[in-house]
Amino acid sequence: MSSGLLARLWTSIRRTAQKPAVRQLPYRGLQLANFLCALHLFADHVATLSYVQGPSMIPTMAASGEIVLELKWINAQKLARGDLVTYVSPLDPTRPVCKRIIGLPGDVVCVDPTGTYAPSTEHVVVPKNHLWVSGDNMAYSRDSRVYGPVPLGLVRGRIYARVWPLTNMTVFPGNFDYID
Amino acid sequence: MAVRASRLVGGMLAGKKVVASAQSRLIGRQKRLRLGVGGCSGLRQSSRDFVSKRPTLHWMLSALVWLPLGFFVTDCVGNVKSIRGRSMQPTLNPDDSQWRDVVLFNRFAVRILHKYKRGDIVALKSPVDSKLVVKRIIALEGDVVKTLPPYPDAEVRIPPGHAWVEGDEPFRTEDSNRFGPVPLGLIESKLSYIIWPLNRMGPLGQPIVARPDATRGSPDWRKSKADLEREKWRNSRVTIAPSPRTTP
């Protein structure tokens, strides 16, 4: 009784496996994998929508979280002061972090105007190939005041605009001004 | 959209069986559309004929289409590169070798698993000029390292999320003794296996053990003893941070 059932099951499996749709399945699977790889590479190297969350960039970005357009196809040498950059956190290699560029290589930066991490008179020269970054909400932000200048090798992308919530879509302006 | 694109692509560049079935489907569709709008499928069929008659164009387009898979593999799984320079002698590119070492770079362990171990040989982006350099991880966060000149401090405690990397050849290397602890985010891949030359083919980054099978005094025995001494010297300069124990 059971062997008859097994034999019927086996023949039905064999028949399904010979159907043209099923025989093409591995190739279609490979094509799907190829397409997903192309999507992944696009998200990694051209542009992607990212979810940003946290209190360190208030009032520019809300603490509760929003979706932004992150450009990955950037020239690290063409970054400007006032740009919002995403980089891998020097404290934790699994976490991407977004902050604003304050100092480019060669700039002399005041380490902490608020005086929490260093006396407000302390200044530092940003070394070659590094950036000085700071969160807009200096009261609650771990940035270059904590871990020092960030090497350009960690930088992943530049945040261009907020796309969600739809009522608040904006292109983030650079906020760098010279004071004479 | 994805399925339509893959069907077009698959139809254009597939093997014989799939082309046959796709063409039979297309011929059926052409028959149905002959009275109506036949322009799109006609273009598809003529472009398929164009490509199938030119085998060079066929394989070039195939390579182009499968490029994302290849890029993904070199980006997230691993790739093979040759090593330049003397900073990792004698582990890599020793003086008695005629060829530059060709090594398998394991990106999966670093990019996906984020596994870093003391003694691993890694490729990282240098903080000084963002160029890829190959060094060995000597210490991880919390460890205390006795540094070599020209580092200004005699001892350094590695901050969280950072590592201390050094080249095996202390006189010809630009490493953490010059630019200090590096964030782990700069590490790109782990060197896991030497592929060329064949006489030194084998895994990299393993702890060195004295080889009991080599006869005492032979060149192999002397080499393994020298490797062991170098490893002991490297490890002696590191005080490993006590791992937090939860049991009292």
From TrEMBL, chain A:
Sequence similarity: Belongs to the peptidase S26 family. IMP1 subfamily.
Active-site residues, as the UniProt record annotates them: 56, 99
Annotated Gene3D superfamilies: Umud Fragment, subunit A (2.10.109.10)
Protein name stated in the entry: LexA/Signal peptidase
Pfam families: Peptidase_S26
GO cellular component entries: mitochondrial inner membrane peptidase complex
GO-annotated biological processes: protein processing involved in protein targeting to mitochondrion; signal peptide processing
Domain Peptidase S26: 39-112, 117-164
Molecular function terms from GO: serine-type endopeptidase activity
InterPro entries: LexA/Signal_pep-like_sf, Mito_IMP1_subunit, Pept_S26A_signal_pept_1, Pept_S26A_signal_pept_1_CS, Pept_S26A_signal_pept_1_Lys-AS, Peptidase_S26
Record's subcellular location: Mitochondrion inner membrane
CDD domains attached to this UniProt entry: S26_SPase_I
Keyword Repressor among record annotations: no
Record keywords: Hydrolase, Membrane, Mitochondrion, Mitochondrion inner membrane
From TrEMBL, chain B:
Subcellular location as annotated: Mitochondrion inner membrane
Residue numbers annotated as active site: 87, 135
GO cellular component: mitochondrial inner membrane peptidase complex
Organism superkingdom: Eukaryota
Root EC class: hydrolase
Stretches assigned to coiled coil: none
CDD domains associated with the record: S26_SPase_I
Region (Disordered): 209-248
Record-linked NCBIfam families: sigpep_I_bact
Protein name, as recorded: Mitochondrial inner membrane protease subunit
The species this protein was found in: Lentinus tigrinus ALCF2SS1-6
